[in-house]
Design brief:
Blueprint: H1 4-16, H2 18-22, H3 29-34, E1 36-44, H4 49-66, E2 70-75, E3 83-90, H5 93-104, H6 107-116, E4 123-131
Antiparallel strand pairs: 1-3, 1-4, 2-3
Helix pairs in contact: 4-6
Length: 140
């Protein structure tokens, strides 16, 4: 689905988030069952990964939190340039849609995006996959 390198990135995201997942219990089983993770893989234009990392560091991560998205982990593949892989957690699919709608329409996001892309586009491709925890996952 994501290709050979991206499959490795998926494994890295899931392995790196294991500590987070095992330390975050949820006593509300119904809420836990509704929660979804979102795996996102961004491929940048050549040489633009530092610009994307700066935008995330300075703006995007905070704006995700502002709009109800939980930042789980951010990674770059050890063997591939121009790629950012990250995992978000949402309370539900409906919450994910609401969060993304709010984020995309946020004036602070538009300002940060436009400023960071003044010298040209940063992101060439975005892949997104919503994931549910299995019944044997440390996250229940």
């Amino acid at each position: 689905m994501f290709g050979k390198v991206s499959a490795a990135a998926i494994g890295a995201v899931l392995a790196a988030s294991a500590v987070f997942l095992t330390t975050r219990g949820n006593s509300d089983d119904k809420k836990a069952d509704e929660s979804v993770y979102e795996l996102r893989i961004y491929t940048t234009h050549p040489g633009k990964l530092p610009d994307l990392n700066q935008r995330f560091r300075d703006h995007t991560v905070k704006l995700f939190e502002k709009h109800g998205m939980k930042n789980v982990v951010y990674l770059v593949p050890a063997d591939k340039e121009n790629t950012l892989v990250y995992l978000l957690k949402h309370e539900s699919m409906d919450a994910a849609k609401k969060s993304w709608d709010g984020f995309r329409n946020d004036p602070d996001w538009k300002k940060a995006r436009d400023a960071s892309e003044a010298a040209g586009p940063i992101v060439a491709k975005v892949e997104s996959q919503y994931l549910k925890a299995t019944d044997y996952s440390p996250q229940k």
